[in-house]
Structures are given as C-alpha cells and as structure tokens.
Amino acid sequence: MDKIKMLTPIVELDGDEMTRVVWQWIKEIVISPFVDLKSEYYDLSLPNREATKDQVTKDAAAAIDKLGVGVKCATITPNAQRMTEYSLTSMWKSPNGTIRAALDGTVFREPIMVKGISPLVPGWTSPIIIARHAYGDVYKDVEAICPKGSKAELVITANGEEKRVLIADYQKSAGIALGMHNLDSSIRSFAKSCFNYALSKKQDLWFSSKDTISATYDHRFKDIFQEEYDENYKAAFEAAGITYFYTLIDDAVARVMRSKGGFIWACKNYDGDVMSDMLATAFGSLAMMTSVLVSPTGKYEYEAAHGTVTRHYYRHLKGEQTGTNPIATLFAWSGALRKRGELDQLPALCSYADALEKATIDTVEEGYMTGDLKAIFHKEGVEPVALTTQEFLHKIADKLATVL
Ligand code: NAP
Ligand code: MG
User: For the whole model, what pTM was predicted?
Assistant: First the structure.
C-alpha cells in the first residue's frame, strides 16, 4: 500500500514521562505504517527545556503560528519536587501556559464517547464541548495579605489622573485581597474563537458568566460577546441553523445537567478549568478527553487533556508493561492530521484521520481496551479484555489496515 502523502509539516511537540513513551508507540504502530509523516520536531521534555532555558517552548509556539497546526504531548509543569528531581536552574513555566499566551487562544475540550462507557449523567447522549478562555483573571492576579488596621484600594492611573476605589478596610480583622484583570482584545479573541468553532462544528454556542454580581467585570465579557455576535456572526449562525445563547453561570450549570449534550459551552478561565474536570469525569475519564487550542487567527494546537501519567512511567522504568490509555493522545494526532488535511486540501489525509478514530472506537466497543476503561465498561454481550498499551495499539492498527 502506498503511504498517504503530506504537504506541510505538522509541528510536533514531544513531552515527558509515560506520555513520551506512548507518543513514540503511536507514531510507530498506527501512523507511520500508513502516512508518510512530515513533522517539524520540538523536544519539550523537561531536560530539553532546562538545556535551552525554555527557548524550545517559545520556538515551538512560533512554529505553530507559522505552520498553522501543532500536536503536543503532555509535559511536566515543574514544582519544588521536580526542581530537585531534574536539577533545574529555574522553575520553568507551564509550556501550555506559554503556548496559550503566545497564540492568544481558546481551549476547546471534547469528550470521546464510546458505546459501553456511559456518562454519569444518563441524559447526555452527545458530547458537551467546553471552551475555556485561556488568558487572565485569577491566573494572572496579584494577591496580598492585609494586616489588621490596613486598607486596600484599587488605583487606576490614566493621563496623570488617579482614580481610587476602596476594596476593603481591615479594621475589625486582618484579611486578604487580590487584583485581577482581563483585556478587551483577549476577550474579543475568545469570543471570535468560540463563534468560529461553533460554526465549524455546526453546534449551538452557550456563554455563561456572573454578570449580575460582577456588573462591570463579567458584564464586559457578556457585552463583547454580544457585540461580536451581532456585528460579525449573526448572519452566519442563522444560515448554519445554530444559535448563540447567553445565560448566568448558575443557570447554565442547571441547564447543562438537564441537556442532551451536543453544544459548546464557553466559560471564563476559572469556570472552564473547574467545569472541564467535572465534565471529563462525568463523561467517563480524563484519558478520554481531547483538547485543542484555537487562536483567533485560525492556528490549532491539539493535545490530550491528561498529564504525563507519572505513576505508570515509574512502573515502565522498572520493566513492567502498563496499560496506559493512548486514546486522548491518539485523537490529538488524528485531530492535527485532519486539520492539516483540510488546510492543504488532502482528502486522503482527512479520511485516514477519520478511519483512525473509528478503528479506535470500534476496538473498544468490541471489548479491547486498557485497564482504566475496563473498570468502567458495561456492554451487553461484550466481556471487556484489558490490554497493554502496545497490544491495544496493534489491535487498532490491524483494524485500520483492513479499513484502508
Ligand atoms: P496525570 O498524569 O493525568 O495522571 C493522574 C492519574 O490519572 C494517573 O496516575 C492515572 O491513574 C490516571 N491517568 C491519567 N491519564 C491516564 C491515561 N492516559 N491512562 C491511564 N490512566 C491515566 O496527572 P498527574 O499525575 O497529576 O500529573 C503528572 C504530571 O503531568 C505532572 O508533572 C503535571 O505537571 C503534568 N500535567 C501535564 C498536563 C499537560 O501537559 N497538559 C496536564 C496535567 C498534568 P492510576 O495511576 O490510578 O492508573
Ligand atoms: Mg484543572
């Protein structure tokens, strides 16, 4: 069989620990036999981030901006313990944070659904995609301890003029304060990314915030979304037969629980952080959740939502076979290859990506999976079998070979 040809390379961001091992296996077992893979490789493993003083992360982000599509392996975000473990000279920032900031993107997280793994919410028959704003708010705040008797104020200076707003008087008790911000430009990019993604998926878009309580801050988000919708997207939404809908976050939560799924839920940074973990768990597993960062100018970075699976890596180093679930990482690759195929007009590459995903889902539905899924799999007439990562990937490759 002739291998499928590519035109433009995909930006490949390698990572750490068990996911780095699984990364190689995915390429060897389910991609390279079928696709003449072209990639521009960046090694984002912690040792190489240390060796390059994190320049490699910035270079990788610039490459995605240039080439348009990237795929990223999970990476370690250093903490105090990792500083010692890897003899780091600095506590390098989260690569995801650096790339999100560079691309000014929005993160869309979508559960992968298979028959046999039922969402904890029985009514959810279609995936719910979370769109998380990836800039500002509490993730870029300043915080302070305020001793008893002190006073905290917000000071805004513009053209030499000072405006002061009292936050709190700490007369009765010591306390705490925080200052956070966002930018109209970033909120507008967030809105555009969400509207574009909804159009590309042909799904309704919901946006929620707490504008009743946060009458200036959250209200600004609501206004910018509405402006963008009215001025730039209303006609396209109507033509596509989809709707944009704003509601308060508490109302949104209630509606989400009662819904059937099949829509995109745009959330502010913190709401998206918390709600995406809730949705991933409720849909079955973090190992069945894909994540794509979309910039307002249409650059895409695909990744798995889980981490580097450290505990499995230590077992792997001792020579044990592990059943690390490769599905989310495999879907990051298929997502990136499909997008590359769309942009370069290579229908064979798009079909390969579709076939890879279908082969993966069919393999699980026939009862072959990693141990994490076996524990939650219930399907009439199918007795699930737990495989190692490599056995599972070979099963998928066999199926793929017959389809292609
Ligand atoms: P994790 O790597 O997601 O793993 C937590 C646990 O979840 C694992 O021990 C495993 O449970 C289960 N799990 C996660 N993914 C799995 C998979 N594909 N297959 C099977 N089981 C899976 O989270 P963590 O241990 O908190 O973090 C490890 C490292 O990842 C940290 O250094 C963190 O900085 C990094 N991290 C990176 C990203 C990213 O790059 N996007 C995101 C989150 C965390 P059992 O051990 O019970 O089998
Ligand atoms: Mg989180």
Answer: 0.89
